[in-house]
Amino acid sequence: MREKLLSRIEGKREELVALARALVRIPTVNPPGEGYAACCRLLGERLRARGFAVDYLRAEGSPGDCDRFPRMNLVARREGPRPGPCVHLNGHLDVVEAGSGWTVDPWEGAVRDGKLFGRGSADMKGGIAAAVVAVEALLELEPDLPGAIEISGTADEESGGFGGVAWLAAQGFFSKPRVDHVIIPEPLNVDRVCIGHRGVWWAEVTTFGRIAHGSMPFLGDCAIRHMAAFVDALERELWPKLAGRRTRMPVVPEGARASTLNINAIHGGQPEGFSGLPSPCVPDRCRLILDRRFPVEENLEEVKAEILGILERLARERPGFRYGLRDLLEVEPVLADPELPVPRAVANAIRSVLGREPSFVCSPGTYDQKHIARIGGLRDCVAYGPGILDLAHQPDEFVAIEDLVTAAKVLALAVRTLLRGETETPARPALSA
Known about the structure:
By secondary structure, the chain is an alpha/beta fold. It is built from 10 helices and 16 strands. It is elongated.
C-alpha cells in the first residue's frame, strides 16, 4: 500500500501545483484580512465534492472582524466507516503584504525552474495544498480507514491567530474527544519535524515629558530623550545578557537559540503622515514597541521583570523620567514531547519517503500550535510542511515543486499511520537543525 500511495501522489503532481497556484491567486492579505471567504469557498467546494462535511465559521467579535473583512474559517470533516482517532490538518489562509522588491507578480502563482512563486506560496498555501492532496490520495486508495480526518483553513495567524485557531479552539474544535492529533504544514523544510516554538512578549513602553516651544527646550521635558535613555540601558544592560543565554530547545536558525529582543517601532513628537514643516515643539510623549522572544528556560514573569526593573531604575535616577508599560501579547513557549504519536508518525514518514534521518526542531517565532496547546489542551501537535522558513515574508517567496510533492507523501503516510494506530516504532531523530 505504501508504494501505491506514493505513486498516487506522484501522479497528482500537476493537480497539486494547480491547487497551490489557485490559493496564491487569492490575495488574503492580513492586515486587513482580505479574501478569507473566497479562499474558504475554494477549499470547501473541493472537499465537499470528496465527501467532507464543510462548515464556514466566522469568528465574530474577534480582533479585526467586521462585515468588510469577516474572519472566516473553514472546517471540513470526513468520518470513516468505523470508530477511531481524528487527525486534523490545519493551515492558515492569511499572508502578509507583498511589499516591494519582487521580480515576479506576487499574485500570479508563476512556475519557473521547478519553483512556484508568489506571496504565501511557502507560508503556507503550498502546505495547505499538500495536505489536501495527501488526504485525497489516501482516501482514494483506502476509503474504509477508521476514525475521522479534518482539514481546516483558518484566519489571522500572521496577526496572532485570534480570529482563527484561537477562536476555534475556544469553541472546542481542537480538543478531545473531537480531535486527537494535529499537523500544521508550516514551511520548516521537508526533513524537519517542528515540535514547538519560543515564547513571546510584546509590550508598549511610553515615556512622558512636557510640551514647550522648540526654541526654549529648557522650559519643557523631552519624552524622546527619556526614551533614548531607556534604549541606551537596553543596549548596555539587557542585550549583552540575552546574547549569552542559550536554550536546549532545538530552535532554528542557530542565532535564535539565544534569547532575543527587537524594537519593532518607535514614535515620538510630531505625528507622522503630515506634509510641510513641523511645528517647533518639545515632544511630550514617545512610544516604543518591543518584541521579546524567550525559550522554555525563561519564565514570562522574569522576562517582564527585567524590563520593568530598568524602567523603575530610570524613574529613580533620571530627573523627570515617567513611563507607562502596556502588555500587547503574551505567549508561553511550546515544546511537545518527540515521543508523542504525531512527532513519531511524521518522523517515520520522512524516513520512509526521503531515506534519511529527520531532525526535530523548534521555530524562532510562534505559530498556531500555541492556541492548540494552551486553549485546546492538545499536546500531540507538530508543524511539518514544504518550503524554507527563511523565505517567509520575503520578496520572490517560492516553494519548490519537488518539496510540495515530498510533503504530500509524508503527510499521507503520517495520517495513515495515525488513523491505523501504528506508531509503535521508536522515532527519536537528532534534536538539531
